Amino acid sequence: MKDVFARLASDFLSAIVFLVVYLITDNVVLATSVAIAGAIAQVIYARVKGQQLNYMTYASLALVIVLGTVTLLTNDPRFMLAKPSIAHFAIGAIMLKRGWMLRYMPPIVAETVPEYVTAAGYAWAVLMFVIGAGMIAVASTGDLKLWAFYITVVAGGAKILAFAVQYVVLRLIVTSRRRAAARA
């Protein structure tokens, strides 16, 4: 679980850096420049350390550079704020693959209720698309405080709630099926 949070922090580091610098300085150019430099430094550091970089790392770097450049040219932070929504759309698209979640489930769940796990995978894809659309809507306002609230409380809370609901539902269904099989 610690690795998951480290990966998420790494993926959203440029957005976090941008937000912090912008809130402290109220300077779009400085915040964007620091975010772009930070994203480039992050990739260079990983390469120097010999870490394997995947497609998403390079896609994220490209997004930071492209959206950061547009932000610099327009002096408008909304482009940088929209970056996490693109990541949510990409993840949502990946989650549309049938059965993607089965490999992340304990064997008892994957073997007992694979159809429910597949449905949960599609539900997660929908959640990612909804969060991404909401993030674009919030980013278009240009309100940094609202965006920070949305990305942390709303988006983060929705994922935690979805995980908790999924856990409880799958546990109840697996328990019910196992009891029924034991009685039969």
From TrEMBL:
Classification via Pfam families: IspA
Gene Ontology, cellular component aspect: plasma membrane
Keyword terms of this UniProt record: Cell membrane, Membrane, Transmembrane, Transmembrane helix
InterPro entries: YciB
Membrane-spanning parts: 12-41, 53-73, 79-96, 116-141, 147-170
Designated name of the protein: Intracellular septation protein
Organism encoding this protein: Bradyrhizobium niftali
